[in-house]
Amino acid sequence: MGIKGNALFAQSGGPTAVINSSISGAIMEASKHNEITAMYGSINGILGVLNENMIDLNKESKKNIELLRVTPSSALGSSRHKIKNDEEYEKLLKVMQAHDIRYFFLAGGNDSMDTANKVHKLAVSKKYDLKVMGLPKTVDNDLPVTDHCPGFGSVARWLALAVRDAGLDTEAIYTADTIKVVETMGRNAGWITASTVMARQKENDAPHIILLPEVPFIQDKFLATLDKVYKKLGYAVISCCEGLKDEKGEYLTSSKRAVDTDRFGHKQLGGVGETLVSIISENLKIKARCDKPGTIQRVAGIAQSKVDQEEAYTSGAMAVKHAVEGKSGLMVTLVRESDNPYKCTTGVTDLGNIANKERKMPAEFISEDGMYVSDKFIKYITPLIGGALPEYARLEKHFIAKKLLK
Amino acid sequence: MGIKGNALFAQSGGPTAVINSSISGAIMEASKHNEITAMYGSINGILGVLNENMIDLNKESKKNIELLRVTPSSALGSSRHKIKNDEEYEKLLKVMQAHDIRYFFLAGGNDSMDTANKVHKLAVSKKYDLKVMGLPKTVDNDLPVTDHCPGFGSVARWLALAVRDAGLDTEAIYTADTIKVVETMGRNAGWITASTVMARQKENDAPHIILLPEVPFIQDKFLATLDKVYKKLGYAVISCCEGLKDEKGEYLTSSKRAVDTDRFGHKQLGGVGETLVSIISENLKIKARCDKPGTIQRVAGIAQSKVDQEEAYTSGAMAVKHAVEGKSGLMVTLVRESDNPYKCTTGVTDLGNIANKERKMPAEFISEDGMYVSDKFIKYITPLIGGALPEYARLEKHFIAKKLLK
């Protein structure tokens, strides 16, 4: 059994629609266990520990903790702080020791799991009894081992709704705005971009082309495919990943923007959509425009996937259960038992299996021509968005006979 | 009473979340009147008349017509075709005559009302008994006479939700992504941008600065205001209109943007949001990023404002009622009877009062410093978004005492 002491909860990396649901699940579960005495929340991820900015979660109303389930973004605040050196790790541990923290729950992606893993190892080497558990979180869906990541189902649902609407928009006004590019998030992995396929309700629906970072962008091939769609439908909608790269592996974005880097040294991307707009209008002489929803897509409370929200909650609760059973150095994983009916349980994996690793879209999830997803991917993602999209009217369009122009 | 004959329905200009609701209301009303025999839908606005591409709406299922109420975008297709000359107007009338169209209902903005007005006048001069009625439609909310326009309440609701979420995102991850710019639609009128104020649930919430095209952008003043917010909160969220102009009346996109060129040598024609990002990062040396939801904001079915949807439906129905009573050359207007409780009825105005006219934000709706909206505007817009936003958790954050750092 786990030692008796205080628990600390922290959120890391980019906010999502359900990272609060994970924390809500963890807090609700923790409050059931006598091993856990006080419950603290670290403000702005690991920074809150370093700066001793921690709040008392027992003083929050139960209603607030429950509302966290449906509240997007990171209520505790987040950060992308990368622990600089051993000294900072030791400081982290000292703060935890000073506050008798014996349970540390960190929700985050592969960078955060590396941090969690190092804290875990340091505690072991210092013989400080600390249970460290990772809660999977990332809209990017790029963590290995786990079938998928809490956060992904909701960004996928949001994009399914948004690309369906944006597609109907282009279909309606194609005589003026002919080609639409929707730029999605996703640094090196195309999961988010691929998820836009869920916008498609029937053949010929948007998106018509899906450009993934796993597939090198070849301009001529892209233009030829686009031209084919355009000649068939009179318009086209393209989903593209912000991290699209060319055959040399270089980002398609402008050199200026690529200079921006975040604190982990990742290039801050943006602008691929506008680049494609230029390529399309210069080469095909058709009007194109770009929608780039940016951070709106990842934290949309209105489009929370019910499945995603529940899995986030459960993964948080399971992390606590494992910790009070005495486990440490693990991340909770989602394990798909079956597709239809969809059934998903949880498992665990060593933090070291996740730390700094990135899972890209496998070849079997990408269409043969590299510009769409496969049926296998659709089977994979369908249950994650939490149910069918609301029904819309689609007119049958029975044309009347012409009388003047024949 | 109106003459007996066929009715033609058309949708014009940019799609919205409720333009189908307007048409649904008109069709449902038309089906109650014996004066109207067949009901046709023009495909792609006025182009459908010119090309005789019209469908038989009686052959659509009742379920489909009812579903139109909740279906975004323009189900009949739209266009931005501007009638070129008298010849084209005469052609329009000839097609209507050939199909015994005696009722013409056009949903659109100020350009479309100009077209409708000219068709009306031509019919009068040719002594062809045609009842022409305009259905107000524009997310831009820039039509005169009417209190507001169907379509506006829904884009406002969508942006309220999106900017609230994007604001919480920035608030959470401000240590990495410090300033967020959300670029909204609205070429010359700031109504849409102003509506983002509805994201604010309490003091210090996003948006912190609202940049309207009615107020010339003065870089130093903007930077000073932003710096003040940044120093107070540590982050800031700015809503800006795509049509922001400088003191010379030039669009910010063309004048101020440091022209980026991507690796292909294409000019990056990003919008005003990216321009502001450059201005902020170059001058204040703070990291900024831009969300530009583009067309997604105007057609979001998920964020339809109930009030907007009902008013769109009613305005469609009223257009038909007036027409069968024998009226023509009018647009239905929304008349606000009271703010609280909100009560709105309909009226009519001559198409000539709307045609090609543009209503900008009045000075009384803009804050004194020109970088926010006034309380009067908040009173104006509150009922239009159709009810409060869903409740979110906001942690009270009771900090625990520091033990190491004091």
Account of the 3D structure:
2 copies of one chain form a homodimer. Chain A is an alpha/beta fold and 406 residues long. Chain A is built from 12 helices and 11 strands. A 7-stranded mixed sheet of chain A has the order 3-2-1-4-5-10-11, with helices on both faces. Chain A has a 4-stranded parallel sheet with strand order 7-8-6-9, with helices on both faces. Chain A is elongated. The interface between A and B is large, with 105 and 98 residues.
Keywords:
homodimer, 406 residues, alpha/beta, Rossmann fold, 2 domains, four-stranded parallel beta sheet, 34% helix, 17% strand
Biggest interface, and residues per chain?
A-B, 105 and 98 residues
SS field, number of helical segments of chain A:
12
- Distance between the terminal alpha carbons of chain A, to the nearest Å? 84 Å
Helix fraction of chain A by DSSP (H/I, runs of at least 4): 25-40%
Shape assignment of chain A: elongated
Strand content of chain A: 15-25%
Assign the structural class of chain A, choosing from mainly alpha, mainly beta, alpha/beta, alpha+beta, or little secondary structure: alpha/beta
Q: What is the CATH C-level name of the largest domain in chain A?
A: Alpha Beta
Order of helices and strands of chain A: EHEHEHHEHEHEHEHEHHEHEEH
| Average predicted local confidence, pLDDT of chain A | 94
Tell me the domain tally of chain A: 2
Backbone CA Rg of chain A: 23 Å
* Quaternary status: homodimer
β-strand number of chain A: 11
* Unreliable parts of chain A: 255-270
CATH topology name of the largest domain in chain A: Rossmann fold
For the largest beta-sheet of chain A, the strand count, sense and barrel status come to: 7 strands, mixed
Major sheet: arrangement of strands of chain A: 3-2-1-4-5-10-11
The CATH architecture of the largest domain in chain A comes to: 3-Layer(aba) Sandwich
